[in-house]
Design goal:
Blueprint: E1 6-15, E2 18-28, E3 33-37, H1 44-51, E4 59-64, E5 67-68, H2 69-78, E6 80-83, H3 95-105, H4 110-123, H5 139-150, E7 157-161, H6 169-186, E8 189-194, E9 205-210, E10 213-218, H7 220-227, H8 232-240
Parallel strand pairs: 3-8, 3-9, 6-7, 7-8
Antiparallel strand pairs: 1-2, 1-4, 4-5, 9-10
Helix pairs in contact: 7-8
Length: about 250
């Protein structure tokens, strides 16, 4: 397609008196990596939930692949890959069993499914983990398996909500390298929601979100130029008025 794979126009969402999104507009082009960067509580997860179809916006428009959830939800979900912030693998099953179960939900089976599992596992360098119980894997490897799972339906758009939560710096960098490889090899568009500045340094564009509003979008270089700084951390502080948060590794 030639238009944006994701287009939000004045999207709004409230939870009681809490206005989580206050008229957000954002688009993602085919093959583009966009980092949605902001502090915790800024509205990243709400935007993610609306984009993934979990919640409907209270106002505005949300379209994926030129379609609306209101009348084409099934068609959208077939072309969407999602990695939630909370881990969702079955710990008592093997990696392969988890992946086969997910593939079956998309109507995949037999040799076609096996090939997709093998291809995605190769891309994320987890082929040697395929037959191991999920419970035995490190947090970083579990996260990579979740992304492999999200790629089985060959999505046009991959949504990731804080995918590196709890990972050590080395594993976070490895995750970023793999995500860029996915884009380069498959031309998949990616929305990466995060509160960590370092994770969006290699994004094609960054959308800064604060208190339910996107205050600026642009390439990393454009964001730094707008702030008059020579690094993204200082640009983040200057434009958002908040200090960047520090990752806390769980392993």
């Amino acid at each position: 397609m030639t238009g944006p794979v994701l287009a939000l126009n004045d999207a709004r969402k409230s939870y009681g008196s809490n206005e989580a999104l206050k008229g957000v507009s954002l688009d993602i082009a085919p093959g583009e990596i966009v980092g949605l960067l902001g502090p915790n509580g800024a509205g990243k997860s709400t935007l993610f939930q609306i984009a993934s179809g979990l919640f409907a916006p209270d106002g505005g428009e949300v379209r994926l692949f030129g379609m609306s959830y209101s009348d084409r939800a099934s068609d959208i979900l077939k072309r969407l890959g999602v990695v939630f912030q909370s881990r969702s693998l079955d710990l008592d099953m093997s990696v392969r069993a988890n992946l086969k179960f997910h593939g079956n939900l998309f109507g995949l089976s037999g040799e076609a499914l096996k090939q997709r599992i093998d291809d995605a596992a190769r891309l994320f360098e987890v082929t040697d983990l395929i037959d191991k119980p999920v419970r035995t894997l490190s947090g970083g490897n579990q996260r990579r398996i979740e992304i492999v799972r999200a790629l089985l339906n060959d999505p046009g758009l991959l949504l990731m909500d804080e995918p590196s939560t709890g990972l050590d710096p080395t594993t976070r960098k490895l995750l970023g390298r793999h995500i860029r490889a996915v884009r380069d090899e498959r031309n998949v568009s990616i929305l990466w929601a995060t509160h960590l500045v370092e994770e969006v340094e290699h994004a094609d564009r960054i959308a800064l979100i604060v208190a339910g509003r996107i205050i600026r979008t642009g390439t990393p270089a454009e964001i730094m130029a707008a702030a008059g700084t020579d690094n993204l951390t200082d640009a983040y502080i200057a434009l958002t008025g908040t200090k960047p948060e520090v990752a806390l590794a769980a392993e």
